Amino acid sequence: MDLYNVRIYPNSKSPRIFKNRFLELLTKTHPIVITLLYISLGIVMLWWYMHLYHKAGDGSYHSRFKYIFHGIHHEYPNDHDRLVLPPVPSLLIAGTLLGLFYLIMGAWALVFGTGFLWGYLSYMNVHYIVHRFSPPKQFAFWWKYHTIHHFQQHDRAFGVTTPIWDYVFGTRPEAHRKTVHIEVMKNN
């Protein structure tokens, strides 16, 4: 085993890294700053979930933003062209998330981001298959579970690939409950 000489200054402050005061400021922080940052980020993500994606409580899509991003899919659940998020918003969201991952993890974001993207890709393809094809007997659970989300309880049964997060967040479907009244419209 090779030994390396390492200097340690246990009782001294570190020297400046950058001459620029702003860049130097970005290299230092107190743990409370990061704690508040991530608590705030979590609150924003929960708010986003509660108000913009699926409105918890009623599953409505009354705002134009929510309708464009997801409500139209609930109104036209078998429109094969609207089963997945289109490339431009998908890339904007993925780019934002990957940028955030990079800020947090550095180069490891490339590895984590790949797993994250492939996980989303798996979810997206399962969602597409559930909407497009009849269920094989051994996987009928996925079809039935997602049907509950679309046709009975918009505010429940969000899991497409697994119901595990519905257990974690308390959004499992409730027996004999309907949150939506379905009015089937004929094609024009």
Record the SSE blueprint.
Blueprint (H helix, E strand, L loop, with lengths): L20 H5 L5 H23 L10 H12 L11 H19 L2 H25 L7 H12 L12 H5 L20
Helix pairs in contact: 4-5
Can you write the helix and strand succession as a string?
Answer: HHHHHHH
**Rg, please?**
23 Å
Number of helices, where a helix is a run of at least 4 consecutive DSSP H or I residues: 7
N-end to C-end Cα span:
77 Å
Mean pLDDT: 81
Report the helical percentage.
40-55%
Number of strands: 0
Structural class by SSE content: mainly alpha
Relative strand content = under 5%
Write down the overall geometry.
elongated
How would a crystallographer describe the biggest sheet?
A: none
Describe the 3D structure.
With 188 residues, the protein is an all-alpha fold. It has helices spanning 21-25, 31-53, 64-75, 87-105, 108-132, 140-151, 164-168. The longest helix is centred in the middle third of the chain and has 25 residues, at 108-132. It starts with 20 loop residues before the first helix and ends in a 20-residue tail after the last helix.
Q: What would you say about this model in short?
A:
By secondary structure, the chain is mostly helical. The chain has helices at about 20-25, 30-55, 65-75, 85-105, 110-130, 140-150, 165-170.
Key terms for this structure?
188 residues, 54% helix, 0% strand
